[in-house]
Design a protein that fits this description.
- The chain is mainly beta.
- It is built from three helices and 23 strands.
- A hairpin with a 6-residue loop joins β19 and β20.
- The chain is globular and about 45 Å long.
- It starts with 14 loop residues before the first strand and ends in a 10-residue tail after the last strand.
- The N terminus is likely disordered.
Length: 316
């Protein structure tokens, strides 16, 4: 895999606050979304609940909202990948492996299942249902080099406020973006499902593992003002991309705050897995997998960063 040269220094985002999350027994915060006036989270270890995060005494207190997912659609993935996902779920829980959360203006919440390569919709009223995704979506993604490896499948989801355009992020080796459009009650790919597919590695920001190159990745996805924003876990940055083709426009770093001695995790990979963008800033959630960081904190963490100078639409 080719290694890219180090990119120019990026503007560092300002950390406004950080709070641990209390009340997610299984840990592993894997998705965040601001829906109906509140911050919500999902864990990839639990298949039957979301969490409303309530501010309390300097932390986020998680309040569970339970649901019962109907049987998932057939898995459009190879037998080997399916079996590894099944065996992993037996050990750690979370057979659906929800890896992202988004919501539209009507109050619908959307969860992307990595293990099933599917999307579950939770409506404000009525029963949960799996979206009727195009049968060729996964086939197209795999043909482009995405979704080939276990635990490197769909990792992020974003939907527009109207609930008519849906984007999914492939995690790594190769990473990429998929786009779907709603027509009547079904989802279709207009001119193809794959918006972007790219491989390669890049150096990590110091002091993360001494700058050792790691595969490019997407660990979270958000939609804001007709732009896509990708959370790039290994590079410790948020990037703005065009809706039409996923082309990179600009990135902002959060490495300076994430890699302090107190916040650093002694692991060869980043922990940032959840992203939500609004006018005032960004929410980033950490899936620490019950690993302690430098100051000993074991709970999942949510960071609130201020929007960059000039806003998320700024060009410099």
């Amino acid at each position: 895999m080719p290694v890219l040269a180090a990119s120019p220094a990026l503007e560092e985002l300002q950390l406004l606050e950080e709070r641990p999350v209390e009340g997610i027994p299984a840990g592993n915060l894997s998705g965040l979304a601001w829906c109906d006036g509140a911050l919500w989270a999902v864990s990839d270890r639990e298949d039957d609940r979301l969490y409303r995060l309530n501010s309390q005494d300097g932390l986020w207190q998680a309040e569970a909202e339970s649901f019962i997912a109907p049987p998932a659609p057939p898995i459009p993935l190879p037998w080997g990948v399916r079996m590894r996902s099944w065996l992993t779920a037996l050990v750690r829980g979370g057979g659906l492996d929800f890896e992202g959360l988004s919501c539209d203006a009507q109050g619908n919440r959307y969860l992307v299942s990595e293990a099933r390569a599917a999307v579950l919709q939770l409506a404000p009223f009525g029963q949960p249902q799996w979206l009727a995704l195009p049968p060729g979506m996964v086939r197209q993604a795999r043909a482009s080099g995405m979704l080939l490896h276990f635990n490197a499948l769909l990792e992020g989801i974003a939907i527009d406020p109207a609930g008519e355009r849906l984007w999914l992020a492939g995690e790594r080796q190769r990473r990429g973006l998929l786009v779907l459009h709603k027509q009547a009650s079904r989802w279709h790919c207009s001119g193809g499902c794959v918006l972007l597919s790219e491989g390669g590695s890049e150096p990590l920001p110091a002091p993360a593992e001494g700058g050792k190159p790691m595969p490019r990745d997407f660990s979270g996805l958000a939609f804001h003002r007709e732009k896509l924003f990708t959370l790039e876990r290994q590079a410790h940055r948020i990037c703005r991309r065009q809706l039409s083709d996923g082309e990179l426009e600009r990135c902002w770093s959060f490495a300076a705050e994430a890699l302090t001695e107190a916040r650093h995790y002694d692991k060869p990979y980043g922990m940032a897995e959840a992203l939500w963008i609004d006018e005032e800033g960004a929410w980033i959630g950490l899936d620490n997998g019950r690993n302690a960081r430098g100051d000993g904190e074991l709970r999942p963490i949510v960071w609130r960063f201020a929007a960059p100078k000039g806003g998320w639409g700024s060009t410099r």
